[in-house]
Amino acid sequence: MGYEELLLQTAQDDERIIVMTAENRALVRNMPKNLGSRFIDTGITEQTMIGMAAGFALRGRVPVVHALAPFLTMRAFEFIRTDVGIAHLPVKLSGFIPGFLSDGNGPTHQAIEDVSIMRGIPGMEVYCPADEDDLVKMLPAIWANPNPAYVRINHKKGNYTHAPFEPGKAEVITQGKHITFLVYGMLLDNVLAAQKILEADGGVEGLSVGVVNMRTLKPVDEEVIINCVRNSEVLVVVEDHFATGGLYTIVAETLLKHKLTASVLSLALNKWFKPGMLNEVLAFEGFTAEKIAHKTRAFYSNEAAGNGVL
Known about the structure:
By secondary structure, the chain is α/β, with parallel strands linked by helices. 40% of the residues lie in helices and 19% in strands.
């Protein structure tokens, strides 16, 4: 089942659901003929859409709104903060082509600070599925939750079959004694491939490499982060987002809160990425499986040497 099919089924089962878009119908092309008046396209007016959604929510509806992630989170930020956040309304924000999924677009159309912006709103939840399977397993619980939520929509096919979803709980795919990757969104597949590379070239004893899908960033699974710190020598945070305000910042906040220290490598963006075909973007910015593995191996070797392990 894909995104649109799941949304339509949910809306047909629950008349409170209102589907809205700011002239971004890529995910919801068949909604007008199936939902009639419960489908609303406001045009290229993200701020107006959020204001309308807040009004519907005040009247007992659950609006699921759609727009390109950069315009939804930045152009409409004040309206999300004021109309949705302060009132704590169950508006569900669906951000399309976030992160590297906006591969062919320049900086104005890149959402690589969206997690930081949205998680800064009190009460706003933030979710980042790894692929379509992850997405459809996460959304029923998100839509049923009375809290406002931002979802980095990712409907790309993945290579991993995900576990059932529970808000606030990460998906521990494998545990690693030497290295543990913390990742979210579309980079999970590349991290899983990097894991295989590292375990294959880990030397005589081999490297034990874990992977955790941090599919829910707010609320975040602090217990998993702490367990990874205590049971793995190095953490590697991989994200198609700025390091500031994203998962790297979340990990740092968690460690400080619990008075812990750790060896942590951040593989994140520090500037807007160069647009191109997705594979070209990943190669240029250093997020292919091979480059993730190379950077991780170098970091681990340096940390191990500094601790007298190598």
